[in-house]
């Protein structure tokens, strides 16, 4: 007799994730919700009974990708006589709702980012073809409260959502509409999730939020204190046994307070990396974007952060061709990049998003001007990124081993500055890469390129092997 607690039959779920780390986290949580229903993750739509596209609405291209993927899935579904459930989740689901099912009738379910805990109920409704197949309500903390309390960790690094939504309303951005108002989780809940991850071997946690440094979650119940800031949260999570590295993303310059900056200097677990998007170096454009700070105020924040942690790697996002951007405005962005000297940065051509204020502004910039500016900016950013990586050559750096490298006998890991590191293990190394996963080892950097460092193992593990000989 089968155990009634066991799922009746294994089914496959394939979740395809687009967009930001928040979606990566949410996709993991959807897998957690589906596991008790007997859904095991599979690697492609071909093996799946349920496909979830976890979508991104940030730029037009991101949205269009979803519809072309849905066109493919429709063919798969037809070939199987309809035996495939197709769900659209994420920010396109939130922004376009029922329109998605009108545009692509093969879609069975549409659910926004606050509704993932309702996935089981919706799948049941879809299979009976009754009830609502659309969930795009915002229900404050319900999502986090209703998701399973435990998580399955996948390797030594993990994302942990601490804040969702955004109240900044930058004039180009859809996030305040797709993710709703800013909302922080209580510190006790976050600490519980961190402990559960640590117990499963996670060593590095990235605290996530659309506007993570605006965090203001309920203080731990025992303290009787008012809401805590991100700086306080970081100090608290640093005490969780097993958590050796902490990062956070993405921050807004306006919420970069002194305590958080100080934490970069005095919390050993805090990694020397700060992703602080600036978007533009022109005060006129920053104003039109509603960013709420000037280019010099941003420079001053960077100066303070570097004072607290001199080796910190600074990262950013840029938009070129925002409405009204002149050659002089663009030059101001180039100058800011020269002044700050970034370790890495992401840059995009402005994409007009329906419903956002900037979409209707005068002075939309022609595509070819955007193309030329993007190329110029990216050329400079690539030079800075390569120079930053090369500055580590000759140094011995602590690397968190995350898995196998590109070649046999090679391991792959992460430096404190979020660089990918490949290094050789000694040929007759007694330990296999799975044994080493999650360890932090010393690697001497021998070479560096645009996207990674390469080096050789020194210290602890190499010594262990020599001692054994
Ligand atoms: N919350 C984060 C990131 C938001 S989206 C922040 O405030 O920085 C990630 C990046 O996408 C943004 O930083 C911005 O550079 C880019 N982006 C957002 N909307 C865009 C648009 N309409 N066109 C082009 N790029 C955009
Ligand atoms: Fe979008 Fe601005 Fe909020 Fe970032 S801060 S999510 S760019 S509105
Ligand atoms: Fe995209 Fe939504 Fe993230 S629009 S960038 S997936 S918050």
Total number of helical segments? 16
Number of spatially distinct domains: 3
Query: How would you characterize the largest beta sheet?
Result: 6 strands, parallel
Termini, distance in Å? 53 Å
The main sheet orders its strands as 2-1-3-4-5-6
Q: CATH superfamily of the largest domain, please?
A: tm_1862 like domain
Query: Are any ligands bound, and if so which?
Result: S-adenosyl-L-homocysteine, iron/sulfur cluster, FE3-S4 cluster
Q: How would you state the average pLDDT, rounded?
A: 91
Main CATH class of the largest domain? Alpha Beta
CATH topology of the largest domain: pyruvate-formate lyase- activating enzyme
Class from helix and strand fractions: alpha/beta
Determine Rg (CA atoms, Å): 23 Å
Strand content: 15-25%
The tally of strands reads 19
CATH architecture of the largest domain: Alpha-Beta Horseshoe
Description of the molecule:
This protein is an alpha/beta fold and 469 residues long. The protein has three domains: 11-139, Rossmann fold (3-Layer(aba) Sandwich), CATH 3.40.50.12160; 142-390, pyruvate-formate lyase- activating enzyme (Alpha-Beta Horseshoe), CATH 3.80.30; 396-468, OB fold (Dihydrolipoamide Acetyltransferase, E2P), CATH 2.40.50.140. Helix content is 35%, strand content 21%. It has 16 helices and 19 strands. Mean pLDDT is 91; it is low at 465-469. S-adenosyl-L-homocysteine is lined by residues 58-59, 172-173, 175, 210-211, 250, 252, 277, 279, 317, 319, 348, 350-351, 353. Residues 11-128 form the MTTase N-terminal domain.
